[in-house]
Amino acid sequence: MKPAQGTFRHSRARGFTLVEILVATTIMGLVAAGAISFGIQSLNIYHYDAGRLLVNKDIRSFTQEMTSNAVYSNYFRIYPNFTSRSSTDDDGVTSDLSVRDGESGDFLVLFFDNTNTTTGVKTITRIIGYYRDPADPSDPASSGPVRKFDVTLNPAVDAASTTLASLLDTYAPTSGAHTNPTVVQLAQGLSNGSLFYDFKDRSVMIKGQIIETGNQMRRAVNTYNFTVSPRG
């Protein structure tokens, strides 16, 4: 029997079952998780490569600067760290704490002097220091920035009338340990846990690792090893 004129037959629309919805949701979740994981991995690789470029740049600039300064200096001293320069025993005798051949430390000082051709008096005209500032003072081997100071002595100081440790106390006080300019963002020493190694009292071997972190998800690390020798 045909429906009366003016009436409509309504077809029943088919919807999604609960199982179909769960399956579709699961698939979409897996796709989203994969996309997020791929994005994180790509971002991780990008930051690591960027950090590695920064590390190599740091190594080049650090090497060039130290080599240039060392060539024009007359001699050097290496101390255990920025604050350990001298010690005084119970009798009031002060001893210099600079390391000797085959030893290492975290504080390198380059001295520039001048000898008066008429009087023969030798004076110190400039001092440049490089030192590692550990992030954790209780752990000297911890990583930290490499800092630098550069002081021109005016008037020049008679080298025979003062000790090197007292000279450093005057022109590079320990209060500036954490405020001197940063040369390298983060570094670790490799020479017995220190950065500078005294080679036969003639050259300085710099052995360490430069680290770039910033806001990276992975740390970029590279090892450097070079030698500098004062002309004096």
Task: Write a brief structural summary.
With 232 residues, the protein is α+β, with helices and mostly antiparallel strands. It has helices at 18-72, 164-171, and strands at 75-79, 86-88, 94-96, 104-105, 107-115, 122-132, 144-158, 182-189, 196-199, 203-212, 220-228.
Mean pLDDT across all amino acids: 82
Number of helices: 2
String of helices and strands: HEEEEEEEHEEEE
Overall tally of domains: 1
Helix content: 25-40%
Largest sheet: 9 strands, antiparallel
Q: Give the overall silhouette.
A: elongated
Give the beta-strand count.
Answer: 11
Unreliable spans? none
Strand proportion, as a percent range, falls in 25-35%
Radius of gyration: 32 Å
What class would the helix/strand composition place it in? alpha+beta
How far apart, in Å, are the first and last alpha carbons? 119 Å
Topology:
Elements: H1 18-72, E1 75-79, E2 86-88, E3 94-96, E4 104-105, E5 107-115, E6 122-132, E7 144-158, H2 164-171, E8 182-189, E9 196-199, E10 203-212, E11 220-228
Question: Can you give a write-up of this model?
Answer:
It is elongated and about 115 Å long. It contains 2 helices and 11 strands. Strands 1, 4, 5, 6, 7, 8, 9, 10 and 11 form a 9-stranded antiparallel β-sheet that branches. A two-stranded antiparallel sheet has the order 2-3. The longest helix is centred in the N-terminal third of the chain and has 55 residues, at 18-72. It has 232 residues and is α+β, with helices and mostly antiparallel strands. β2 (86-88) and β3 (94-96) form a beta hairpin. The mean pLDDT is 82. It has one domain (34-228).
